[in-house]
């Protein structure tokens, strides 16, 4: 079972990020569901009328796919329907490697809002900032364009260029930025020792490699400075990712088997409790990826940095560390997602 913390339908250019979502690949049971025949008859009538009278022909598959997408997206801001291509892209993105500009985005007032330019990406090097609004993609206005279409427009072959028109609220001006697409390899964990023997660990998103990479970074920090006095966990602008990643990161600093997060829902398998045990955060590798982390990291004084763009999985980690009085949270109020998505087929 793979869980994702999907933050606010945030779709990175190449990255469905922030996912307080659980991705759970299982067949959805259809037995026992009574279909609303009158409503389906209405759908059939509308479908037939569009086919007969719309100004230009539309393929059956497109109409039906769009109808399903509308049905799912109307549930809440975070639910969405993924076709085969979308699902393949999501799997690629959570692996930490994709082609595009390197920004996480959402929709605001009909335009695209930058949530976070991924560090060391083309977007970051071009100077894009969190909070920037994208109003045009090349010569096409963004207003009226779906977020999904905007994402697909900004993605592309590495080496090709796209010009974004940016409106920056803080400067009250619009300006064009031309960015060359590239293959984005996201290193989700960065770490170093600051002055006064303080460890700084930055997690940009929660991916398949986040927990084992964190384990290695923490071990390296302890070896580099055996006299560590404290640790700063930086989750600013972290929109989320894999739920197992969040559970594993929290587990690195909490007692064994500490309850980190629980989920509730209509389906029986949505009633779950995730604790700090390997089976709850282990993904592709056997064994416990946190087995070699020095015990000092469960005791060092700790601060967690957050801001308004810390969402989903980030909020789970910060909340768990705060609830156990393991860390002091510093920064602005976080996004406030509070839900988990499950991918089913």
Helix-strand layout with pairing:
Layout: E1 4-6, E2 11-12, E3 15-16, E4 19-23, H1 37-53, H2 60-73, H3 84-94, E5 97-100, E6 103-108, E7 111-117, H4 122-125, E8 133-137, E9 140-141, H5 147-154, E10 161-168, E11 173-180, E12 182-185, E13 189-194, E14 198-203, H6 210-224, E15 230-234, E16 241-242, H7 243-251, E17 259-263, E18 272-275, H8 278-281, E19 302-306, H9 313-323, E20 328-331, E21 342-343
Parallel strand pairs: 4-16, 4-21, 14-15, 15-19, 19-20
Antiparallel strand pairs: 1-4, 1-16, 2-3, 2-6, 5-12, 6-7, 7-8, 8-9, 8-10, 10-11, 13-14, 17-18
Q: List the domain count as a whole number.
A: 3
The low-confidence parts are 4-29
How do the helices and strands follow one another from N- to C-terminus? EEEEHHHEEEHEEHEEEEEHEEHEEHEHEE
What is the SS-derived class?
Answer: alpha+beta
β-sheet strand percentage: 25-35%
CATH class of the largest domain: Alpha Beta
The helix fraction, in percent, is 25-40%
- Per CATH, the architecture of the largest domain is Alpha-Beta Complex
* Count of helix runs: 9
Query: What distance lies between the first and last C-alpha atoms, to the nearest angstrom?
Result: 13 Å
> What is the residue-mean pLDDT, rounded to a whole number?
86
Rg, Cα atoms, Å: 22 Å
What oligomeric state is this? single chain
- Using DSSP, what is the number of strands? 21
**The CATH topology of the largest domain:** 2-enoyl-CoA Hydratase, Chain A, domain 1
CATH superfamily of the largest domain: 2-enoyl-CoA Hydratase, Chain A, domain 1
Inertia-based shape: globular
Largest sheet: 8 strands, antiparallel
């Amino acid at each position: 079972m793979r869980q994702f913390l999907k933050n606010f339908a945030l779709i990175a250019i190449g990255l469905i990020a922030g996912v307080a979502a659980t991705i759970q690949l299982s067949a959805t049971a259809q037995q026992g569901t009574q279909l609303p025949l009158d409503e389906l008859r209405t759908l059939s009538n509308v479908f037939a009328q569009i086919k007969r009278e719309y100004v230009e022909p539309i393929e059956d598959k497109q109409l039906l796919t769009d109808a399903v997408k509308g049905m799912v997206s109307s549930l809440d801001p975070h639910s969405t329907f993924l076709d085969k291509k979308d699902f393949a892209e999501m799997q690629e993105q959570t692996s930490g490697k994709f082609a595009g500009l390197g920004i996480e985005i959402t929709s605001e007032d009909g335009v695209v809002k930058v949530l976070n330019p991924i560090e060391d990406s083309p977007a970051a090097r071009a100077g894009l900032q969190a909070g920037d609004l994208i109003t045009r993609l090349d010569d096409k206005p963004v207003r009226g364009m779906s977020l999904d279409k905007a994402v697909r427009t900004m993605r592309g072959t590495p080496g090709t260029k796209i010009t974004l028109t940016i409106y920056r609220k803080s400067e009250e001006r619009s300006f064009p930025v031309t960015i060359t697409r590239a293959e984005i390899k996201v290193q989700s964990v960065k770490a170093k020792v600051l002055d006064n023997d303080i460890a700084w660990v930055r997690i940009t998103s929660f991916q398949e490699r986040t927990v084992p990479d964190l384990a290695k970074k923490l071990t390296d920090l302890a070896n580099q400075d055996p006299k560590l006095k404290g640790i700063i966990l930086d989750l600013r602008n972290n929109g989320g990712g894999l739920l197992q990643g969040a559970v594993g990161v929290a587990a690195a600093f909490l007692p064994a088997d500490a309850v980190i997060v629980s989920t509730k829902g209509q389906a029986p398998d949505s009633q779950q409790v995730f604790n700090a045990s390997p089976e709850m955060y282990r993904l592709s590798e056997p064994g416990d990826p946190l087995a070699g982390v020095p015990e000092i990291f469960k005791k060092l004084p700790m601060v967690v940095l957050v801001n308004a763009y810390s969402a989903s999985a980030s909020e789970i980690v910060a909340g768990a560390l705060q609830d156990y009085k393991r860390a002091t949270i510093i920064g602005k109020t976080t996004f406030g997602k509070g839900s988990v998505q499950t991918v089913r087929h």
